[in-house]
Amino acid sequence: MAKRNASSAGATETRENLLRLAARAFSVQGYSATTMRYIAEQAGIEAASIYYHFSSKEELVDEVMEQGGALIVHALREQVDALSEGAGAEQRFRAAVLGQMYGLVKHGDFALAHSRLLGQLPENVRERQVKRRERHQKLWNDLLEDLRSQGKLRPDVDIHLARICILGSINSIQSWFNPRRGSLESVADKLCDMFFQGVGVHAESPQQVC
Prior knowledge:
Helix 4 runs parallel beside helix 7 (123-149). By secondary structure, the chain is an all-alpha fold. It has 10 helices and no strands. The protein has a domain at 58-196: Tetracycline Repressor, domain 2 (Orthogonal Bundle). The longest helix has 28 residues, at 2-29. It has helices at 2-29, 36-43, 50-53, 57-81, 89-106, 108-116, 123-149, 159-170, 173-176, 184-197. Helices cover 71% and strands 0% of the residues.
């Protein structure tokens, strides 16, 4: 029994390692240029052995995309769930922004593959991932609708465009975030402040004297 458990644990470890290596390869090289042989070589196993864990490249990339999406949503929900029971819509929104940013930074290769590969995927894989992304988008739509219902978002704001605005800023974080210029929490707060208050000078704002 112990030998069987050890063998099962070893197979699980190999599978997880293959997923990590695949995420890195897909995110850097793209789907078409990444081969199963290349991933097997990176893992130090025979090319044929990879098919013990994944029946095809389609199955492998599908799992990479699923994990990438799940890791990001998990990080988001962790931040939101940590709020007190009476937290308002703005607090939940800010927590979601921080959570998604944290997930993207922490799970770099999976997050990059998740964000870059959709247009490159085989049709059957892409269809599944589009449906999963639609569920993620609904999560953000609900957060934005809650803001509106609590008077934190103008009635005339287009929810679709508002979601694109905030997610467009967040999802590119790996290309611009520099911890030496501020913590993730600080950057998330500033991003949310700009979202809620805008960046234009309001009539009531005092003008600086040069």
